[in-house]
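Q: Can I see a sequence and its folded structure?
A: Here is a first one.
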Amino acid sequence: MDEIPMDEVNEIHLLPEDLQRKSLAEREIVLMSDDTRTAIDILERAGWAILGWEPWLKLPDGTHMHPVISGDFPREALEDWPTYVHRSAQLCRDMLEEEQREWDQGTFLPPDFPPYWREKIPSMILYFCLTAADSHWCSQHRKTIHFVKIAKKD
């Protein structure tokens, strides 16, 4: 792997090259559940908090789509960084287990999901996209993150 300037390092650069190659996106962590578990462990050991996730569905032709489903793991008031890193990793592991179980049981998508896509579910593969950051990035973007959260509530 080429040397990457520290100010350009993002979460995917923390993963070993074999996991980076498996990702559906070049600059994001987008992996199947088993590899996502490994990525969560790596991020936690590196001291990066998992800010959120979204599912990606890979179609048989190799293209993918993003259902309008996502989740975030915000930092609690006065929570120290190591506690947040551990808690966000655990929340993400719990989410991963639940979402994969729902996918396996056929209850992952909401009932109002278009029938055209619902019929294609058996041929799709579920992937998980993770967004993570280190403490330096979060401290620089605290106001931006807070603003986004306020905007989501409306």
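Q: Show me another, different protein.
A: A second, unrelated one:
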Amino acid sequence: MEIKLLQIGPPKCGNYWLYNIIQQIYRLKGIGYKSFISKQPVYGEAQDWDLSHSLQAGIDMMDIERGKCFYRISSAFRTPIADLDEYLSHTNHVWTHSEVGENILPVLQRFNKRVYIYRDPRDMAVSAARYAFTPYMMKYYPHNESSVESYLQNNLQDIVQSWIWHVTDYLLLKGKADIHFLAYERLLEDFDATLAKLGSYLNLPLNRDEINEIAQRVDFRRLQAKDPGHVRKGKRFQWVNAFTEDKKERIVDKAGPLLKLLGYPEEPDEKLPEDANQFDFAAVKEVEQELKSPGVSKV
């Protein structure tokens, strides 16, 4: 059966890195590159656009809203997908940031593989704040903030809130949609084992030599040299020096139940996050109820 993979994740959680990893798996396993967008007239025009990274014009990006699907290039172009079957016949790797919404499950089930990447929301927020000041973001998402610090001060609540429900809602769909979950931090610090599990999920098992080759090809220094405006250091615990103690406590007060479930500590430690693929529905549902409780504070 031909693979039809949907890559999912909140923004600034390692999506670009994961995309490159999956493409390297495909290459080593002899799975040819298929792209719907590269066959559209707009693709040629997009070669001259100011985009965030070198691959962006050729990536099959999808928005899913109330069961309807749209294909797009960055924030510069978006149009409805008239026939999802026709669309899927021309691609084997689609990327979405879409949240769980009305009638999303039937769309997810049109793919035979679904991979979800997530990250500690505190590091995600720091990454998003820095990214907000790149030329690309200032062009498509202009704002009036004067510094990374002020951006975090005024947007942290929305970033954390969005992360909470993006991750929770997809965890609740895991059983119905057979989603494979990847913690960004596990890729950072236990790359070989995490990649091997991904290969197994995709029914594309990887041997030691293949894992080593992929590790070299998706090394951060290599990707950063290719796309310096999009790829930074990729380190954990950048949030430690970015937030006041009060902000750190408020994030834990708001997202604490989900941080605890995922294995993200209140203070830095050397432990890896939990493997979300092992969670049962009841545990996630319990966290959902805690997050909805009136006592959860604002950031």
